[in-house]
Amino acid sequence: MENLNIALLLMIVGMATVFAILLIVIYLGKGLIALVNKYAPEEVAPAKQEANAPAAVPGNIMAAISAAVTVVTQGKGKVAKVEKL
């Protein structure tokens, strides 16, 4: 019975130690993230200036895209919009 009590005590101490170390790691990680975000914030890239009207897709390219979609979807799909990314 003595060995069982020692084993249970050792298990509880070990689990508490692991739990405490994990809490320390979590809060140190959060602190490091906050510190980095405060002193070295991510640079914001300026938004692209887009033209008012997007350039039209040439007819032969639109036909090729439509044909490819028709072949791949076996006639069930259709092209609604084509944009350059």
Automatic annotation (TrEMBL):
Q: Which GO terms describe its molecular function?
A: sodium ion transmembrane transporter activity
Q: Where this protein primarily resides, as one coarse class? A: membrane
InterPro entries membership: Na_pump_deCOase
Locate the coiled-coil region(s) and give their ranges. none
Location relative to the cell = Cell membrane
Q: Which Pfam families match?
A: OAD_gamma
Q: Which GO terms describe its biological process?
A: sodium ion export across plasma membrane
Q: Which residues cross the membrane?
A: 6-28
Q: Keywords, A to Z?
A: Cell membrane, Membrane, Transmembrane, Transmembrane helix
GO cellular-component term (any)? plasma membrane
Q: What's the name of the protein?
A: Oxaloacetate decarboxylase
Organism classification: Bacteria, Pseudomonadati, Bacteroidota, Bacteroidia, Bacteroidales
